[in-house]
Amino acid sequence: MAKTENKASVQKRGAGKHELSFGGKWQYAKAAESTDHVTIEDRYGLFIGGAWVRPKSGKYFRTVNPATEKQIASVAQANKKDVDLAVQAAQKAQPAWRKLSGDDRARYLFRIARILQERAREFAVLETLDNGKPIKETRDVDVPLAAQHFFYHAGWADKLDLLFPGEDPEPVGVVGQIIPWNFPLLMAAWKIAPALAAGNTVVIKPAETSPLTALRLCEVFEQAELPPGVVNVVTGDGATGAALVRHPDLNKVAFTGSTDVGKEIQRAVAGRSVDLTLELGGKAAHLVFEDAALDQAVEGVVRGIFFNQGHVCCAGSRLIVQESVHDLFVRKLQRRMGRIRVGDPLDKNTDMGAIHSAEQLQRIQGLVKSGVDEGAKLYQPSCALPKRGFWFAPSMFTGVTQSHRIAREEIFGPVLSVSTFRTPEEAVKKANDTSYGLSAGIWTDKGARILWMASRMRAGVIWNNTFNRFDAASPFGGYQESGFGREGGRQGLRAYVKLRSGLLPG
């Protein structure tokens, strides 16, 4: 830490309590991650059939750094013809890939995972530049988890018969995958790894606002000598995604993104023999009981909503606190929010980076305004936001009711709504009062209460005395408008195989 003044004062906080105050004179020394080791091309093409090709449209779009609004690179805009070529390449590669032994497919996946680890720093910086999230998140979460998914599924590649005994598992064929902008690298690994482990080939479309790490992953595939056409990457906007979803030669579609787009995809594949996995939006309830370790719960709530600027589908955006500890917990939370460092995503001290895009910032601002207009009380700590880029301060609403828009709509930003409950029954009722059902969190000292609550809450993932912790071995997915199907773990592999019973008729 850089000390600018060594004098401290004692400030009275009320009720006879005092605390040390340095008057903002103690600040973290800037510790920016270097970008010198990251090479970024001026223009990126499509990765089809193991080669880099120009788009048939001849069109390119910009990808920008959300923290500076400066262009990073131009990226190819794939059209219907490009998507068709990518699917053809995947079809051509599929017979040979499915015939490979599980051992051989595992070797490729292990190789990809190791190369990703070796190039971890490069990927972390590129993800931060293209996405706006803090470097310590890309370095400590995104890249390690992406590698873990390849390692984990490499371990299953030669054990599918053990995973599905007597059911003769086979790959589904050619898989079309569409991933969101909030976790580009992790979502790519999340989807590609199980598909390859099961013997499928892939055509994947990353989000148009954060495509660079998915394209950089293609370099890893080349380095690992993955057979041409096994993974194909087409970049572009919603029209590219629509062309992929509607392609007649796909055997499966896997999508992570908004609920509205998920519904459109569901309509597009209706009546076709296409498997579908949807991981959509969320409005997670984060429940805190009076017997919880409150200081730990505060840290969990902060991680639950301010991690990745709240750009998380399973973010704990609805804090529901037992009435007896509400005031105390809110004070603790406000104090902790005041210590969140917002700023340069490349600074290793930064806790919250930039909002991903101007469009997303506008949506956050609109919903926050609705909360104020509807009578909820807004709290934002004092923090200096950079003048360039897309920024929003960590925010919390108190006095929120179930009818408020901020309590019902997915904000997808660093905005927390706080309400109260008195009994466990009321907590369950409020937690389930949503059209979503992706995740939830429970903080209590009583194990029996955790089990009682979890058995009654409609959420695909329920964290106990923690939040936003992920592992490749754990299945992930939701209910209701949060989608269907599971990704990760053994359950996630099931979505990428066809099963035929090997049992004889009795």
Detailed description of the structure:
Helix 1 crosses helix 8, helix 2 runs antiparallel to helix 4 and helix 3 crosses helix 4. The protein folds into three domains: 30 residues, no CATH class; 238 residues, Aldehyde Dehydrogenase, Chain A, domain 1, CATH 3.40.605; 187 residues, Aldehyde Dehydrogenase, Chain A, domain 2, CATH 3.40.309.10. The chain has 16 helices and 24 strands. The N and C termini lie far apart (74 Å). With 506 residues, the chain is an alpha/beta fold. Helices cover 37% and strands 19% of the residues. The strands form seven sheets. A seven-stranded mixed β-sheet has the order 18-19-20-17-16-21-22, with helices on both faces. The N terminus and C terminus are likely disordered. Helix 6 links the parallel strand 11 and strand 12.
CATH topology of the largest domain: Aldehyde Dehydrogenase, Chain A, domain 1
Q: Rg to the nearest angstrom?
A: 24 Å
What is the count of helical runs? 16
Distance between the termini: 74 Å
Short account of what is shown:
With 506 residues, this protein is of the alpha/beta class. The chain is built from 16 helices and 24 strands.
Task: Please name the defining characteristics of this protein.
506 residues; alpha/beta; Aldehyde Dehydrogenase, Chain A, domain 1; Aldehyde Dehydrogenase, Chain A, domain 2; 3 domains; seven-stranded mixed β-sheet; six-stranded mixed β-sheet; 24 strands; 19% strand; globular; disordered C terminus
